[in-house]
Amino acid sequence: MAAIAPTAGAARAARASSLKHERRRALYWSYFFLVLFAVFFLTPPIYMLITSLKSSAEVGAITNPWWVYNPTLENYKALLTSAEYLTFFRNSAIVSLVVVVVTMLISIPAAFALARMKFWGSATLATGVFLTYLIPETLLFIPLFKIFAWVNETFDVSLMNHWWLLIIVYPTLTVPFCTWIMIGYFASIPKELDEAALIDGAGYLQILTKIFIPVAIPGIIAAMIFAFTVSWADFLYPMAFTTSADQMVLPAGIVTTLIKGDVYAWGQIMGACLLGAMPPLLIYAFLMDYYIAGLTAGATKG
Amino acid sequence: MAQVNLRKVVKHYDETPAVRGIDLDIADKEFVVLVGPSGCGKTTTLRMIAGLEDITDGDILIGGDVVNDVPPKDRDIAMVFQNYALYPHMTVHENMSFGLRLKKVPKDEINRRVQAVAGILGIGELLDRKPKQLSGGQRQRVAMGRAIVRNPKVFLFDEPLSNLDAKLRVHMRTEIKKVHQKVRTTTVYVTHDQVEAMTLADRVVVMNAGLIEQIGTPHELYHSPATLFVAGFIGSPAMNILPCGLEETAGALNLRLHGGITLPVPAERVARYRSQAGKQELLLGLRPEHLTEMRTPSAPGQSPIEVNVEVTEPLGMETLVFFGLNGAEVCARTNPAANVQPGKRAQLLADLRHMHLIDRASGRVL
């Protein structure tokens, strides 16, 4: 025994040291890639911030582009006192918030039905919902033009060049994905919970409102963040469907009004983009935990 | 009156039969346990009574009314699930009162009933807690409370104790029995644990392969099993089953076990088994407690046998002795004082007054 013990101890120590060594090496690599990605993703916003603090003259001057010699808040002042920019902001806010509400009103009942009320074709329909999400918007905006034209001819209602048109259009992007992630979330709720509620006397609508929605709050918040981000940041549809400045939302408004011919108001463009990025940034910062919980639901048995 | 009646109830999942035509009458206030191995159709039967599964054929009656097409909420039943199925976002009070609130029962009445039931179950202190703050046993009580508070015609329990550890399970078993004695509501209880079935039930329904094997009191099932399946399923350690033949010599009947061992059939059983004389395809069923250490003087109907002991399991109050006989492993329950040793020969006493003779082909106890 006495002879064996030190050998075994040494082997154990060697193994522990090897594990420690491996772990340290893995950590080095993790940090290397984390720093690499952080630099890659943070460089543009930092450059935007630097540029937004420069006057037009300094932007045009041949100096170090990564340094501000005469910092100024003129760009921000100009933006925040510009009626146009505030209109874009307001339009974006209304469109995004209403799209979130509309998306939830459609996606939650749809996901509940597809996850729980087994009916003929429900599985195919669930896959179909996801497949529609895979169709890129660049393929959709021309058919959408045709639809708007048809609506105009048939009902004499002009949909083009209205900010509220986006409230109709964006759900085509948000509903399929939100429905899909909520199907996953609802499916992870034990079946016995709805059976208990059924026996307790609840109807399907009550099961949805009193059991599923409160239990699935993390999933619903994840879906809401997604819907908000998509409708806040979308560029193609507002560029294609709105033309007057008072009907535009932020992404389209910034490039349309701050680029005049071949004159780029770089400082203001950068400032406008940074200000525009604030609302999603704040939402992510406060609701990140919910977002991750929602997206990974069903991955493990809870 | 809240009797439950099943009339030729059949359930098929697509083409697979789960329940193959069962008849069952459960009296008002009776505690009936459905027991059987996995896949025997017991849970399906319970879920059909609850209305959570449609029935393929037959009728289910609750309180004398056919409820085949009545939705669960209108059947006036309450169910306790295996995984408790408590609403995770509600407090214990809200969980228990959910059904009453849906029925728009006045608030004062709800509070009164929740407090009364919480008192019965000893969960009065937990009413403001959420399910995740409760232990397994407490969750089980809340699930029972949610069922009791609605004062339904029938309680349905679906393996409610199988998620609890062994000690808590025994404790909760007693609790359930106490609650039933206080509340006296017709109860249908599903379990795969025969000890749970025996200890709780007024009557036990043993199911196998979608059919009812036997319905009876725990005493009847244990002492007078109707089939080979029931004989083997009820009792722990299980009944010893040995292939044998029955021979008649000079008016007396003898069991001939393969291997040359002959055991005389007790005089009081001779008339019952005489018609089987000469048959070779029989099985002898003998419970371990009827196979004991040698005692003298032995009573009529008790026969000594000598065996090679393979394994002993001392349990303190008794020692289980295992040996091979006729190619089957046989268990005997002996007094620890007899000091039966593994690897040695031992004289045991077979008490054939409690024997069961089973027809191997039909599986019926004769």
Walk me through the structure.
The complex is a heterodimer of chains A (302) and B (366). Chain A is an all-alpha fold and 302 residues long. Chain A has two domains: 4-52; 74-295, MetI-like (MetI-like fold, Orthogonal Bundle), CATH 1.10.3720.10. Helix content of chain A is 76%, strand content 1%. In chain A, strands 1-2 form a two-stranded antiparallel sheet. In chain A, strand 1 (259-260) and strand 2 form a beta hairpin. In chain A, helix 1 (4-52) packs antiparallel against helix 14 (266-295), helix 4 (83-116) runs antiparallel to helix 5 and helix 4 (83-116) runs antiparallel to helix 11. By secondary structure, chain B is of the alpha+beta class. Chain B folds into two domains: 4-233, Rossmann fold (3-Layer(aba) Sandwich), CATH 3.40.50; 240-359, Beta Barrel (OB fold (Dihydrolipoamide Acetyltransferase, E2P)). Helix content of chain B is 25%, strand content 34%. Chain B has helices spanning 42-50, 92-102, 107-121, 136-148, 166-183, 194-200, 218-223, 228-233, 267-273; strands at 4-13, 16-26, 31-35, 57-62, 65-66, 77-80, 154-158, 186-191, 203-208, 211-216, 240-249, 252-257, 262-264, 282-286, 291-293, 302-314, 319-325, 328-334, 345-351, 356-359. In chain B, the strands form four sheets. A six-stranded mixed sheet of chain B has the order 6-7-8-3-9-10, sandwiched between helices. In chain B, helix 3 crosses helix 4. Chain B is elongated, with a radius of gyration of 25 Å. The two termini of chain B are 38 Å apart. Classes of the chains: A mainly alpha (302), B alpha+beta (366). At the A-B interface, helix 9 and helix 10 of A face strand 6 and helix 2 of B.
The percentage of residues in β strands of chain A lies in under 5%
Which stretches of chain B are poorly predicted, pLDDT < 50 over at least 5 residues? Answer: none
Work out the largest interface and the residue count of each chain: A-B, 17 and 23 residues
Query: How many strands in all of chain A?
Result: 2
* Dominant shape of chain B: elongated
Number of domains of chain B: 2
Main beta sheet of chain A, described? 2 strands, antiparallel
Class based on secondary structure composition and strand pairing of chain A: mainly alpha
The overall number of domains of chain A is 2
**Poorly predicted regions of chain A:** 298-302
Helix content of chain B: 25-40%
CATH architecture of the largest domain in chain A: Orthogonal Bundle
Instruction: Say what the CATH topology of the largest domain in chain B is.
Output: Rossmann fold
Dominant shape of chain A: flat
Looking at CATH, the homologous superfamily of the largest domain in chain B is P-loop containing nucleotide triphosphate hydrolases
CATH topological fold name of the largest domain in chain A: MetI-like fold
